[in-house]
Amino acid sequence: MKLIKNKHELIRGDLHRIVIETVEESFDHVDPYTAIINNVKLTDRGISVKGVNIDVGGKIHVVGFGKASKRMAMTINDILGDKIEGGIVITPNEVGRIGSIILVRGDHPIPGENTVKASKQLIEYLERVENNDTLLVLVSGGGSALFEIPEDDVSLNDIGFVTKELMNRGADIYELNIVRKRLSKVKGGKMLRYVSAKNIVSLIISDVVGDKIDTIASGPTAPDETSFLDAYMILKRYGIWDKVPNSIRTIIDKGIKGEISDTPKASESIFSKVMNIIVASNEILLEALAEKLSKRGFKPMILTSMLEGEAREVGKVLASIIKSIDKYSKPVARPVALLAGGETVVTVLGKGVGGRNQELCLSLSISLKTIENYLALCMGSDGIDGISPAAGAIVDENVLKEATQMELNPIEFLENNDSFTFFSKLGRAIFTDYTGTNVNDIFVAIIV
After folding, report:
1. Organism's domain of life (predicted)?
2. In contact, 30 and 3? CB cutoff 8 Å
3. How many other C-beta atoms can be found within 10 angstroms of the C-beta atom of residue 178?
4. Is 317 in the same domain as 441?
């Protein structure tokens, strides 16, 4: 896969080439086409999904939303062809048709009027699906923004405000979604209230740490065990309960009092006809990286696929492991490839331009100022890192030397949350287009 647009600028030696080529090769394993083609098969009586046979008595319909939704729809269409009755798939930037599936455009990363219009089209389509039919739901990261219909008296601006405030204070995706589910007519399993199909199969590309199905795209087809009280406690904990619009306080207050219904729970009968299946994830990508780096002569060690925390602090922790390898050959001796994945957060205090992967890489490189013979790559698998145009960054023992030559103070850039400016000046920011998938972030470090 040709993934990184500026790799010729980034490759400054054999290690750079090895890491970049390995990352590009490994992304094939979480490509939506590969993920779907390996898990969905056409059978004599219907379809098989991850080895489970589904008897399709009626028609097959396809709906979807997320950054990978177009490519997922293309694959399903290649497999099932004219057996698909129709469908609606919401994408970040595409309109048109794939067979009988209509592509419509939503808004990302903040839901806007395009998202609401597209989501209402999708719901109207779902309401026409008959009770003997089969519904395939294609879910991927970005679905929270692309598929949204606010609850009555709640506006998109209200949702956008609370989302931004929580993100700027370091809230993670679980906390964000607990709040957003209370403000939506379709999140947290609520989409199922519009569906009467016999079979509902969600094919999911996970962009959530730990692959929590109720969190990916805010869990439109998954039971939700959180509550209005949980949402209230999150807003209080981050100090914004009194700052959010009155519409949000009103709906949460009513929910706590039991005056309005909450999200569907696992005990409800509607989930007896639902299958939620993860077809691509961060763990799959890390395993592919480990296998390929092993063949290149490195000892791979997958530290975790559940990396979380403040990006700059996580950078220090990862740096400490590299220091331990450098000094004590523990937990493993050189040559080693350290691998990790997940999703960190950035508490924004400065006015710069950056993202969690670049901030992690900047913090790591500062912590490794005395270490040689290492290279590290931090990258968002969707090609997006924060508010910057980059996907991530690549660093080695020469980063701080280059910064000194250009009279750049890395600590000042870190404190100003300006990691993109720092790395772009050094020619070390990673640029991709939309990768077509989204399975969280990856960290790759080679120590030789």
Report:
1. Archaea
2. no
3. 26
4. yes
Q: Which domain holds residue 117?
A: 32-149+184-226+263-280
Q: Are residues 144 and 40 in the same domain?
A: yes
- Which residues share a beta bridge with 339? 302, 444
Tokens of 50: 């991850």
Task: Give the model's pLDDT for residue 405.
Answer: 98
What's the alpha-carbon Rg for the chain, to the nearest Å? 22
For the record, the structure tokens of 11 come out as 């490759």
The first and second tokens of residue 79, run together, are: 């497999």
Do β-strands 84-91 and 46-49 pair in parallel, antiparallel, or remain unpaired?
unpaired
Is residue 170 situated within a structural domain?
no
Residue in 228, 221, 225 with CA at minimum distance from that of residue 151: 228
Structure tokens at 197: 């199909």
**CATH assignment of the domain containing 19:** 3.40.1480.10
Neighbouring C-alpha atoms within 13 Å toward the C-beta of 187:
28
Average of per-residue pLDDT values in the chain:
96
Residues 220 and 352 in one domain: no
What single DSSP character describes residue 161?
H
The pair of structure tokens assigned to 67 is 């950054």
Q: Residue 357: pLDDT above 80?
A: yes
Q: Indicate the pLDDT class of residue 168, thresholds 50, 70 and 90.
A: confident
Alpha carbon distances (Å) from 306 to 128, 263, 322, 330: 40, 26, 19, 21
Domain at 123, CATH number? 3.40.50.10180
pTM (predicted TM-score): 0.88
